[in-house]
């Protein structure tokens, strides 16, 4: 009677719990099944590192747009609609004080055009004004009213120095290229990290399935030994051992589920999903042999790897630094040519009745005499920096070759491991099935069956791990060589393809 009441209470509690679970589940998002491609899209969209890298690239793109805009004609209009001044001054020539009052208005229109080819500057300027001047000294009064206009063309050209305009433009282009490369490298790193985390979740999900299968098998073996014990065909020790094996497999299943939850949390954190979202990954890791050409991988890696592009950019920047350093305390000349016409008259229509031509020519030379070896030392330091960048470039090439060779060898080794793991899993399954029949017939103890069950689980796990490791090494080879050997195409991140096409 007591057992019946307790049982009814348990049923009631379970029913209430089920209703509460249904109620709560209405506020919890449904489980999401993610493929690898969907996970990559989410990571690219949500990753803070990629967002910052993309912003840096966009910022440098705008700097380049601004620099290109500065090479076009610049128009400037300055207007002073009203000006007034009144002051008393002392004239030393006549030893007397005089009072002056000035009224006026003026405007200037300026057009400047940088010359990229020569680093010169062409200026066209027109100054127009009106003035009303009044002065008084010893009761003598003087007035002057009229319009004036000054139109001139001017050209400034540096000599015996490098083209600063062109060099600055090249530096900004290289900064943009550097930012683009950094963004691309961030994309590649993210892709590999997402692949690792994705397959880690898949690995843990498979571990749960294997643990569940082991638990189900232990349940079957426990039922078998329990019936034998009740029929008097088996000793109690066998029942106790089977019960212990069952509890152990249940604990292993719980541990596998905990590891799966932890892996899912880390995966959601990496790709930027809410930690409260329920997810499940979907993938097919069936073995498909991918032919990898080592020479092709090395050649493409050396020609396309973004790190090498970055090293070349660093080398160019060092060369630019040498050019700028050599210009310190340099012999330099500046030529300024100006041709203009000026006119003034109280009557606006007669401003240029008597024009005045105003040509101007100026040549200036800066001749360094002695700088105590400052320029020579700085140039030597810049040359050493170039040599250092060249060493970095060669080291990067060697690192790429070594990484690709290492990945290639790992792939070859993993092919053999997969074949062995498949055969081991097949043999372990056959061995377990045979010994399960022996166990049913009483020819095998629970301890022995547990050993065969553990061996089966171990071989299944080894096969899954070998398949996942092979997939990760294929992806690693794609990242190392920037060539997709599965599809036999060049490999560039999707987001980078969009940015490259937009720049073109």
In DSSP terms (H or I, runs of 4 or more residues), the helix count works out at: 10
Look at the structure and name the CATH superfamily of the largest domain. Outer membrane efflux proteins (OEP)
Low-confidence stretches: 1-29, 498-504
Task: Report the structural category.
Answer: alpha+beta
Largest sheet: 7 strands, antiparallel
Can you tell me the CATH architecture of the largest domain? Up-down Bundle
Shape: elongated
Q: Report the sheet-strand fraction.
A: 15-25%
| CATH class assignment of the largest domain | Mainly Alpha
Radius of gyration: 42 Å
The chain-level mean pLDDT equals 82
Helix content: 55-70%
The total number of structural domains is: 2
H/E topology pattern: HEHHEEEEHHEHHEEEHHEEH
Q: How many extended strands?
A: 11
CATH topology of the largest domain, anyone? Outer membrane efflux proteins (OEP)
- Separation of termini? 84 Å
Brief digest:
With 504 residues, the chain is of the alpha+beta class. The protein contains 10 helices and 11 strands.
Q: Can you describe what's shown?
A:
The chain has helices at 2-25, 36-46, 48-70, 164-230, 236-271, 294-304, 306-326, 374-440, 446-481, 494-503, and strands at residues 32-34, 74-91, 96-115, 120-137, 140-159, 279-281, 332-345, 356-357, 360-366, 483-484, 489-490. By secondary structure, it is an alpha+beta fold. It folds into two domains: 31-58 and 170-316 and 388-503, Outer membrane efflux proteins (OEP), CATH 1.20.1600.10; 74-115 and 120-160 and 331-367, Outer membrane efflux proteins (OEP) (Single Sheet), CATH 2.20.200.10. The strands form three sheets. Strands 2, 3, 4, 5, 7, 8 and 9 form a seven-stranded antiparallel β-sheet that branches. A hairpin with a 2-residue loop joins β4 and β5 (140-159). α3 packs antiparallel against α4, α4 packs antiparallel against α7 (306-326) and α4 (164-230) runs antiparallel to α9. The longest helix is centred in the middle third of the chain and has 67 residues, at 164-230. Mean pLDDT is 82; it is low at 1-29 and 498-504.
């Amino acid at each position: 009677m007591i057992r019946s009441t307790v049982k009814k209470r348990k049923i009631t509690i379970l029913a209430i719990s089920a209703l509460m679970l249904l109620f709560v589940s209405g506020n919890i998002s449904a489980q999401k099944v993610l493929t690898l491609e969907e996970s990559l899209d989410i990571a690219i969209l949500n990753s803070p590192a990629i967002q910052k890298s993309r912003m840096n690239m966009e910022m440098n793109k705008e700097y380049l747009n601004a620099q290109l805009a500065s090479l076009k004609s610049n128009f400037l209009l300055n207007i002073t609609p009203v000006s007034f001044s009144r002051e008393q001054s002392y004239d030393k020539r006549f030893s007397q004080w005089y009072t002056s009052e000035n009224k006026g208005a003026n405007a200037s229109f300026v057009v400047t055009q940088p010359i990229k080819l020569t680093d010169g500057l062409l200026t066209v300027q027109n100054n127009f004004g009106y003035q009303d001047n009044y002065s008084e000294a010893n009761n003598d009064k003087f007035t002057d009213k009229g319009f004036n206009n000054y139109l001139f063309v001017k050209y400034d050209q540096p000599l015996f120095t490098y083209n600063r305009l062109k060099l600055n433009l090249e530096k900004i282009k290289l900064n943009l290229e550097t930012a683009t490369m950094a963004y691309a490298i961030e994309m590649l790193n993210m892709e590999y990290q997402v692949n690792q985390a994705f397959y880690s979740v898949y690995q843990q999900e498979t571990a749960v399935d294997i643990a569940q299968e082991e638990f189900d098998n232990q349940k079957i073996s426990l039922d078998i030994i329990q019936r034998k014990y009740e029929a008097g065909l088996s000793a109690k020790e066998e029942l106790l051992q089977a019960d212990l094996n069952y509890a152990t497999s249940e604990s292993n299943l719980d541990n596998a589920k905990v590891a799966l939850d932890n892996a899912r949390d880390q995966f959601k954190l990496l790709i930027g999903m809410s930690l409260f979202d329920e997810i499940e990954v979907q993938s097919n890791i069936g073995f498909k042999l991918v032919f990898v050409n080592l020479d092709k991988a090395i050649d493409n890696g050396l020609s396309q790897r973004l790190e090498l592009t970055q090293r070349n950019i660093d080398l160019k920047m060092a060369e630019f630094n040498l050019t700028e350093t050599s210009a310190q305390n340099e012999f330099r000349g500046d030529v300024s040519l100006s041709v203009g016409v000026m006119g003034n008259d109280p009557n606006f229509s007669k401003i240029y009745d008597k024009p005045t031509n105003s040509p101007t020519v100026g040549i200036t030379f800066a001749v360094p005499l002695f700088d105590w070896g400052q320029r020579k030392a700085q140039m030597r330091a810049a040359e050493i920096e170039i040599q250092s960048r060249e060493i970095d470039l060669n080291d990067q090439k060697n690192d790429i070759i070594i990484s690709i060779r290492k990945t290639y060898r790992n792939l070859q080794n993993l092919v053999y491991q997969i074949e062995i793991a498949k055969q081991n899993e097949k043999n372990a399954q056959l061995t377990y099935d045979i010994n399960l029949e022996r166990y049913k017939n009483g020819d095998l103890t629970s301890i022995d069956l547990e050993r065969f069950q553990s061996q089966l689980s171990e071989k299944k796990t080894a096969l899954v791990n070998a398949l996942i490791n092979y997939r990760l090494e294929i992806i690693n080879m794609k990242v190392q060589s920037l060539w997709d050997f599965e599809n036999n195409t060049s490999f560039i991140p999707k987001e980078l393809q969009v940015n490259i096409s937009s720049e073109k």
